[in-house]
Design goal:
Helix content of chain A: over 70%
Largest sheet of chain B: none
CATH class of the domain at 1-85 in chain A: Mainly Alpha
Number of helices of chain B: 12
Structural class of chain A: mainly alpha
CATH architecture of the domain at 1-85 in chain A: Up-down Bundle
CATH topology of the domain at 1-85 in chain A: Four Helix Bundle (Hemerythrin (Met), subunit A)
Order of helices and strands of chain B: HHHHHHHHHHHH
Radius of gyration of chain B: 22 Å
Shape of chain B: globular
Structural class of chain B: mainly alpha
Oligomer: heterodimer
Number of strands of chain A: 0
Radius of gyration of chain A: 28 Å
Distance between the termini of chain B: 45 Å
């Protein structure tokens, strides 16, 4: 009962936040609504006792991805009127995608439910069960190849992104940090001894 | 402890307590603990400002605050009252809602992280398995306060501060995370209590010895993450006035200040727990202190001593070093710290394989 109240209240906030992402006029507000939506889905995962996934969601999406997103959105001077204009243009595509997702959800919930996959609520985990350990032990034994391949793909993406954006412009003045650090006072300053002079 | 309270109060209270359902008991005891810890942190922060002004004062040949109360000890309260009765000025073209909510977004993660910090061998608000991840997640959320404050103010100085802070925190978070991977490997757990217990048995068992480079990287990244000198380019009063909080006044400014100092105390506590054994006593196993010596017992006292030491180091750094140039901060984060942590994780792998250091007791 208590569990259900918590679930529905957090789920309601999640839906409101997700709607806010679409309908907010200000792009920074939209990003903040998305952050709220991530937090709420993390809470829902916590309720399902998936604490590792929940915290990693906050760590990766809220802590890193959305910060960079906010960074970019703030730098861009987005014209609100132009976005309004694009609304009707992209509406058919949006409706098709939304329809597809509804169909997929219905398939998962309704068809799988008929096959007897449905359980009432989550099964409570036994005492001393660690979600993180369980995940790690499967990830590094059974699925180690898939895991490693995913890691290599991510590394490839990093290298590709850097090599695409890095251009060597000729005539660019750059600092050599090592030589700056290694510099000593006698290289730069010369102290001259001279006798004191007196104007006649 | 119970002897201090007379029976005619204690007995009805015990009867009342036993009669409560377990959920209410949990709620009551946790709420009391949360309120107690929060009030303690806020008081610590208040006296940390006094401590900072005294320490830097003496380092610069001054005496620091000495007018309010004995030895100037009333100074923090005078400051708080001054800030409380000042007006909060909201700039006309600012984004009002985000302007007001930004200080709150920076203080909440700083306080919420204390939920998983083990204060002594038995006291921790939430003894969760993924404690270390929780710490990482919440410290990374703290940057929103700074970025939103800079944007909502609608001023270029504030905006420049916010941009600098965002880039800096994203860069140093990676080094911090990798340093904690090393701690995780040595401690064999994500639970902060278990990490501390893994360091039991005297100074030679503390992680600072096998993980010395990671300790340095973690603490310096912590200084950068809290926007303290010499990494305080987000504030940069000589270039961009006061950075992200240039238009803040009164309580709103006080909350930013509180968040910065609460984060300093937090980083000090985390460094003590990850590398200096947390509540563990440095005299563990020193028999000549006497069989019953309290100094050898693990207790909150030792954690407090370690926290105080690291807070002192924060001030020491501030009084010693000039501010870093912005491009050099980026270079230090990306090109020095991250390679150091990755190399040391590999070294730790070799140490674990050869069963030396913290891994000597490991079976198999």
């Amino acid at each position: 009962m208590f569990h259900a109240i918590l679930f529905y209240s957090f789920a309601a906030i999640l839906v409101v936040a997700a709607l806010g992402v679409i309908f907010a006029r200000n792009p920074v507000h939209a990003v903040m609504f998305l952050v709220l939506a991530f937090f709420q889905s993390a809470v829902l995962w916590l309720l399902a006792e998936a604490e590792f996934l929940a915290i990693v969601l906050v760590l990766v999406y809220v802590g890193a991805v959305m910060v960079l997103f906010l960074f970019v959105v703030m730098m861009l001077d987005v014209e609100v009127e132009e976005i309004r204009g694009g609304y009707t243009r992209y509406a058919p595509l949006g409706i098709v995608i939304a329809g597809l997702m509804v169909v997929e959800l219905a398939q998962v919930i309704w068809l799988r439910g008929k096959e007897g996959f449905a359980v009432d609520g989550f099964r409570p985990t036994p005492e001393g069960y660690s979600n993180t350990e369980a995940l790690g032990s499967v990830l590094y034994t059974e699925h180690v190849y898939a895991f490693e391949i995913a890691a290599v793909i991510l590394l490839l993406a990093i290298v590709a992104a850097i090599s695409l954006t890095m251009r060597r412009r000729p005539g660019l003045k750059q600092q050599d940090i090592a030589s700056q650090v290694a510099v000593r006072a006698q290289d730069r300053v010369r102290i001259v001894k001279m006798a004191s002079e007196k104007p006649e | 402890m119970t002897a201090l309270i007379p029976d005619f109060v204690m007995l009805p209270w015990m009867a009342f307590w036993e009669g409560l359902p377990p959920l209410m008991q949990l709620l009551f005891s946790k709420t009391t603990l949360i309120v107690f810890v929060t009030v303690c942190i806020i008081l610590t922060v208040a006296f940390t400002t006094y401590f900072e002004r005294k320490v830097i004062g003496y380092m610069q040949g001054r005496i620091g605050p000495n007018r309010v109360g004995p030895l100037g000890l009333g100074q923090p309260f005078a400051d708080v009252i001054k800030l409380l009765i000042k007006e909060i000025v909201v700039p006309q073209k600012s984004n009002r809602f985000l302007f007001i909510i930004a200080p709150l977004l920076s203080i909440v993660p700083a306080l919420a992280t204390w939920a998983v910090i083990p204060l002594n061998p038995t006291t921790v608000i939430a003894d969760i398995n993924a404690g270390l991840l929780y710490v990482l997640a919440l410290t990374s959320v703290g940057v929103y306060g700074v970025i939103l404050a800079g944007w909502a103010t609608n001023s270029k100085y504030a905006f420049l501060g916010a941009m600098r802070s965002a880039a800096q925190i994203v860069a140093y978070e990676i080094a911090m995370g990798f340093a904690l991977v090393g701690v995780l490997m040595a401690g064999g757990s994500l639970n902060l209590g278990d990490i501390t217990r893994a360091q039991a048995g005297g100074v030679s068992h503390w992680f600072i010895l096998p993980l010395l480079p990671l300790f340095l990287v973690y603490f310096i990244s912590g200084v950068a993450e809290t926007n303290r000198a010499p990494f305080d380019v987000a504030e940069g009063e000589s270039e961009i006035v006061a950075g992200f909080h240039v238009e803040y006044s009164g309580v709103a400014f006080a909350v930013f200040f509180l968040a910065e100092y609460a984060n300093m105390v937090l980083i000090s506590a985390l460094t003590s727990i990850f590398f200096l054994g947390g509540w563990a006593s440095p005299f563990e196993g020193w028999t000549f202190l006497g069989a019953e010596s309290l100094l050898r017992e693990p207790s909150f006292f030792w954690l407090a001593v370690k926290i105080a030491f690291f807070i002192f180091v924060f001030f020491w750094l501030r009084a010693t070093f000039p501010r870093y140039r912005y491009d050099q901060i980026m270079r230090l984060g990306w090109k020095v710290f991250i390679p150091i942590t990755i190399v040391w994780i590999a070294v730790e792998g070799v140490m674990a394989w050869l069963r030396i250091g913290p891994w000597s007791g490991m079976a198999g």
